[in-house]
Structures are given as structure tokens and as C-alpha cells.
Amino acid sequence: MLLHEQIGHLCDSLKLSSVAASWPSLAEQCIAQEKSYGEFLRALLESEQQQRD
Fewest 10 Å CB contacts: which of 5, 11, 16, 46? Predict the structure, then answer.
């Protein structure tokens, strides 16, 4: 199983629908902007929180 498939399954089981949808493009943005892993994670979690609010 490929990495993106594994992440998708984990997001489904944890009910992180926004993370599942946004992580690939957000990862590309963070790479392009030379952001840290922590900044990527924060942005990912913020997107999940915004979707739930």
C-alpha cells in the first residue's frame, strides 16, 4: 500500500476528513515555502478544526 493510501485509511479511521482532503496540497505548499514539519502539522490541524467549527 502506498503512503498516501495509508494516510487516507488512517484519516478515515480517526475521522479526520479535512486532513485527508488537504494534506497533499498543504504538504506541497509547505515544501515550497520551506516551512518546518511543525508548521505543516499546525496548518493541517487548523484546517481540520476550521472544518469542524
Answer: 5
Q: What residues does each domain of the chain span?
A: 3-52
Asked if the model's pLDDT at residue 1 lies above 90, the reply is no
Rounded to whole angstroms, the Cα distance separating 41 from 48 reads 11
**Report field, pTM of the whole predicted structure over 0.85:** no
Residues in contact with 20: Cβ distance below 8 Å, sequence separation at least 6, in sequence order: 7, 8, 11, 12
Is residue 30 within 8 Å of 44, Cβ to Cβ?
A: no
Distance from C-alpha of 20 to C-alpha of 8, rounded to nearest angstrom: 6
Alpha-carbon span 22 to 48, nearest angstrom: 9
